């Protein structure tokens, strides 16, 4: 294993570790409880936003455009972002966000998704969905996941700002109806990758629909049960965002970070981010590898054994 303790500790390139976020927590939690979301404006300084943008450039240059209607044919996504650079890892363990997750999820919660989302001009509205839709526990219910979407570009009503339906986190299954269809996830042939117009908005949703307009460096945090979508980009420039999502430690994460990230790269991350990526135990033994703590596998020590998990 690469033994580099200095790299393992977050040096908070994008956040100020000395900021005390405790006074804001009650406000954040009250908004999440009442509305299903909270917008925290300008949480990142401009320099951090620009550093994140620069770090994303080489990934976006590879043009990872969407393959299906859900990903969006004019939308680029860079997956497993938290493991692809120190700035991205630091963002995933932002203390203000983790203080919210600490309050709403069980200890040992995980990252379930970590991606950049760049919506280009000409993109249509994404299908409405919830981020914990695949956990088929009857609604209304507590969320299984908490989502964040960080604005790297300012979000406007024209450039594809996320759209949310306030209060929809309380809807039951009947009220939610079927938001997504299997067709939204079918990989289209390259010459058929054309944005599709979104179906009309149900009348009863109109009053609660909100464009999440926010300055660059802001973040929307929302419950996995809240209905939302990426907006239509009618502007002339792309809308860049980073979305980290966190889930209960007993839920299967969307992204398989054990395969998408190289162990040597994970070994360089802070312990907190390693835990978020799944290199952790949810007691008594969820997550073990051959009966041992999964971090041992990063050391190349992946032998079977009955030693106590640390
Ligand atoms: O990009 C956005 O504003 C929302 C994207 C989203 O909700 C998703 O892809 O799951």
What do these coordinates show?
- With 310 residues, this protein is an alpha+beta fold.
- The protein has one domain (5-249, 265-279): Jelly Rolls (Sandwich).
- 24% of the residues lie in helices and 15% in strands.
- It has 10 helices and 9 strands.
- It has helices at residues 5-8, 22-35, 46-61, 86-92, 95-104, 173-176, 257-260, 263-266, 271-276, 295-298, and strands spanning 37-40, 75-78, 110-119, 145-151, 163-165, 209-211, 219-223, 228-229, 239-247.
- It has a 6-stranded antiparallel sheet. It has a 3-stranded antiparallel sheet with strand order 6-5-8, with no helix packed on it.
- Helix 2 (22-35) crosses helix 5 (95-104).
- The structure holds 2-oxoglutaric acid.
- The site of 2-oxoglutaric acid has 8 residues, from loops.
From the structure above, extract its key features:
globular, 10 helices, 15% strand, six-stranded antiparallel β-sheet, binds 2-oxoglutaric acid, Jelly Rolls, single chain, three-stranded antiparallel β-sheet
N-to-C terminal Cα separation, in Å? 18 Å
Shape descriptor reads globular
Strand and helix order: HHEHEHHEEEHEEEEHHHH
What structural category characterises the helix and strand content?
alpha+beta
Summarize the biggest pleated sheet: 6 strands, antiparallel
Strand order, biggest sheet? 1-7-4-9-3-2
What ranges have pLDDT less than 50 throughout 5 or more consecutive residues? 1-12, 306-310
Q: Classify the helix fraction into a percent range.
A: 10-25%
Radius of gyration: 19 Å
The total of beta strands comes to 9
- CATH T-level topology: Jelly Rolls
Number of structurally distinct domains: 1
CATH architecture: Sandwich
CATH superfamily: q2cbj1_9rhob like domain
Are any ligands bound, and if so which? Answer: 2-oxoglutaric acid
Task: Let me know the average pLDDT.
Answer: 90
Strand content: 15-25%
Tally of DSSP helical segments: 10
